[in-house]
Amino acid sequence: MGVSEGHRQISAEEFAVLTDDLWHQADVAAQQRLLADMELARLRAGESIPVFNVLQQLVALIDPAPVSILEVGAASGYYSAVLRLGGWHGAYHGVDYSATLIELAKQCHPGETFSVADATDLGTIGQFDLVISGACLMHVHDWRKAIKELVRVTRGPVILHRTPIAADGQTSYWEKLGYSHRCLEMHFGEVELLEALHAAGLRVEAQRDVGDSGTFRMVSYLCQTELVR
Q1: Domains within the chain, CATH numbers bracketed
Q2: Contacts of 150 (CB under 8 A, 6+ apart)
Q3: Is the pLDDT of residue 57 over 80?
Q4: b or e along 72-105 (b: 16 or more beta carbons within 10 Å of the residue's beta carbon)?
């Protein structure tokens, strides 16, 4: 089985009630980490890895450079290495709702800080100079609440990295196989997403395309907070 295959479109109502346990599975964590390590090795060797390069480029646009970064949906923490390889130096904290992935992150990146937290309820984790959500929002049922949580815990920008934007402009809901397990995801209508960002107090300052499947494209957004604190 592949990393991502067998997409089947479902209704919003189905998406609201269906669940999956993909990211809690030890075999999924191991497979994802193996792929991440291969890509990190290529990055260290000087190869261009667009999905990594885009994040590095967006972080480099932030002036002054963030002293602290929170990554929501950090998985096994490999983006901490991507940030370091891009020249960023600061305090990194990664969170994920999967204890399985967080334990792997602690093993793979012992010098970084990781904890278990849900994207829709980040608790008393504190505030950070930059908050990153990478390929996470598309799996969250209450994604508008997750956006509000990103805003709540940042002192500055938010980066939505690898966000699937539907080619037809309409938000759609999907069931698929990811690493041989059932997985749910959304492809956002860009107007709907941007309206939700604005409602949460964010404005898009820069964006980069990461990839295009034909039916959706992956986009990364650098957003600045507009709320008065």
Answers
A1: 5-225 (3.40.50.150)
A2: 72, 131, 133, 158, 200
A3: yes
A4: bbbbbbbbbbbbeebebeeebbbbbbbebbbebb
* pLDDT, tens digit, 9 for 90 and up, residues 92-115: 999 999 999 999 999 999 999 999
| pTM recorded for the entire structure | 0.95
Tell me how far apart the alpha carbons of residues 165 and 91 are, in angstroms, rounded to a whole number: 31
Q: What value does the mean pLDDT take over residues 41-58?
A: 97
Between the CA of residue 64 and those of 60, 61, 70, 100, 157, what are the distances in Å?
9, 9, 16, 35, 11
205: closest CA among 95, 15, 57? 57
Give the tokens for residue 40.
Answer: 């990190």
pLDDT in tens, 126-137: 999 999 999 999
pLDDT at res. 84: 98
* Calpha distance 36→124 (Å, rounded): 30
**What is the C-alpha to C-alpha distance for residues 95 and 158, in angstroms, rounded to an integer?**
15
179 by DSSP, 3-state: which? coil
Reported in sequence order, the residue ranges of the chain that DSSP labels E, i.e. its strands, are 5-10, 68-72, 91-96, 113-116, 130-134, 158-166, 172-178, 181-187, 202-212, 216-225
The reported pLDDT for the residue numbered 1 is 40
- Termini Cα distance of the chain: 48
Burial (CB < 10 A; 0-12, 13-18, 19+), residue 164, is buried
Strands of the 91-96 sheet, one edge to the other: 113-116, 91-96, 68-72, 130-134, 158-166, 216-225, 202-212
